[in-house]
Fold this protein.
Amino acid sequence: MNLDRARRFMEGLRIRDLKTGNMVPFIYNKNQQKAFKIIHNLEERKKPIWVVILKSRRVGMSSMFDGLGFCHVMAKPNRDGLILAHLLSSSKKLFQVPTSLWKSLPMKPGAIPTASRITFPHPQGNSILEIATAGREDIARGGTLSFLHLSEAAMYEREGTFSGVLSSVHYSTENIVVVESTANGMVGRGKAFYDMWCDAEAGRSDFAPIFLTWLDDPDCVRDEQEAESAPVDDEEKELLRRGATLRQLAWRRFAVRTFCEGYIDRFHAEYPTTPQESFISTGLPAFDQDEIRKAERTCVKPIQTGILEFKDGKYTLVEDYRGPLFLWEEPIPGHCYYIGGDAARGIESGDFAAAVVWNGTTGHQAARMSSKIAPEYMAFVLNLLGRWFNDAMINLELTGNLGLGCQRALRDTYQYPNIYGWKGKDDRRIQPTKRNVLGWETTERTRALALQLYRESLRNGELVVKDKILVAQMSAASTEEGIRWQVKKGHDDILYSALIGWAARVQYPPPDVVNKGWNLLEQWDALLQQSQKPGSHYSFPLEDPEARSAEHIKGVLHPRSKEPRLLEGI
């Protein structure tokens, strides 16, 4: 099926308009045009049209893709298409689109459609488009589908629905798979869809991610006089900065009050403006909304994506859109760089190895790498990456021995010159020789410390995030039991690499950088001891008045210097 021809064909047919009830030509709205552009790009690149869509309500994805499914099964023989809804009532509404298209055909092929099936006769074999609900146990098992639409997939109650149905579609340019939904959290029924979205957004699956916001829905407006007082909070300020109108802010206030019973988190889930705010974290978020929005504002597309090579004495980034390395800046002469790394086993079913590169001189994120590679190959990659970025300081997570193997190869095989050593007067791992132990050992204390150093620098503008995947993992992180944080669902490899890479920068700052993080380091043990007292639920403050006012001089050994350097903290 050719997408352009299918679209022109549907524009000559008629469907029921939801607002007026009249039969109108099938002309795409703004969000449908956005989604069509993405799948058209997949078609031009000869990639299978497999997409996962995170969306606001009422953007028309079901109508658009059920129309394309109608064209798909009608075009060729022996094609089976399935539309899967989470409720029986929803399935009836969804099937109105292909039924309306069938009725508006000038010549009616085949039998009259039933409530759940349309049959298209072909000499070589009939093609069928049918609809079912997700509660059925026999959905598509043993069959071979060429078109599959999972509607409101985050709402499916039966476990295994995703794996059972998707296994019936072969990954081919001849087949179409669409998984679309509003968000339904990160656990329970919404878990499978959340995981699928995260994998697609991070480039870890064959699905292309499509995000659709209510800001592109022309119906989401009201009288601007209802929002004359705008902006009344930081979120309205951010929406205005992004181009929202007063009419849209008026509708948002109305929707929160009317559709969401005053709960802003429910509005974010059903009418998101970013992917991150649509998934409501369990527990207490590790980052507050101001921090997430601040990180989102600085995210930009990488300047290059690919694989780093060293050949003939020269570093080259070989461009590959599916490559593991995402680059936001090339190494700047004279700047100091820091790399946080998290090793993995390198097996297909395991976690990802990851690395995040920070320009310590400017505070900007410079690069990110994520791939399922073994610790020995991770050392090879880090050696290339670190030497390219001006012999960057590399800080590896050691817990679980995977990092130890990677660090050993980095030190002994590649003789890398700048490996992080834990810096802290209280460190029990410092040997009798007074030499710092290499690498970052994760404990409850160091895990919480890395998070707080990162948050402090993000809030004061010292740290600048460029990567939307890093922001996605920040949004998924939640805190429990006082100072402990974790990402319960999905991955935290990129986030933790970013945290410990930045911690290295705080402990070993570049020359002439005022190191605000030392005050946090100085106070951390006292705060930890206080949190461990019976009945205490003390959480480390982001803004500590005493830390802000204290004058403190600390000797700092810069990674590229052999002499201590005095820096004044704030």
